[in-house]
Design goal:
Blueprint: H1 2-5, E1 16-21, H2 25-42, E2 46-50, H3 51-56, E3 65-73, E4 76-85, E5 88-98, H4 100-103, E6 111-114, H5 117-129, E7 133-135, H6 145-157, H7 176-184
């Protein structure tokens, strides 16, 4: 419907972009498989975008660090740390699955936290950082397709589009099924 309402044919698309994670294992597999199928059938390149970076893009006009947090379960968060340098969102700490207390070691200045990891772990950051911890409201916790598109355009300009078969999910850790399989070996 989106393409039709804008008089765009699927063949008119030059690139595809997809959030590669971290996030729900099944959700990532479905999204990436869909984009791979479309891109492969149309012979178009794909750009994979970090879920955390796309979430961090919701925060603008700040000189603070930006730390997207997603609940990774098992007492961990999926997190990264970014800061703005003019119009560029610069990675300070790469995507990781980490214990909140370990993440604190990377936060050396006032930090804005965003994402559902705040619900389970916000108190840890607030107790340690006090007034240097700022929490965003729930309405900013959604990843916007427009942010994925903006980040993809930057990657395309930098020559980082890839063939669809090379795009892989960024799970950051093994799934429960993989862990269980390894324990059986």
């Amino acid at each position: 419907n989106l393409l039709k309402s804008n008089n765009i044919n699927l063949n008119d698309i030059d690139y595809f972009a997809v959030a590669t994670g971290p996030g729900s294992f099944t959700g990532l597999r479905v999204g990436i498989a869909t984009i791979k199928g479309l891109a492969w059938s149309l012979k178009k390149p794909v750009v994979g975008i970090s879920t955390l970076k796309a979430l961090a893009m919701n925060i603008r006009d700040t000189d603070k660090l930006i730390c997207p947090l997603l609940d990774a379960r098992k007492n961990e968060v999926y997190a990264a740390v970014y800061e703005w340098d003019g119009d560029n969102l610069v990675t300070v700490k790469e995507d990781c699955a980490i214990l909140p207390n370990e993440l604190l070691k990377s936060l050396n200045k006032p930090t804005v936290f965003i994402g559902d990891g705040i619900d389970g772990y916000g108190d840890i950051f607030k107790n340690a950082l006090r007034d240097n911890a700022v929490f965003t409201p729930h309405n900013l916790w959604r990843i916007k397709a427009s942010n994925i598109a903006k980040l993809a355009l930057i990657e395309i300009k930098n020559g980082n589009a890839q063939p669809p078969e090379s795009i892989m999910p960024n799970y950051l850790r093994k799934s429960y099924a993989e862990i269980k399989l390894n324990n059986l070996s």
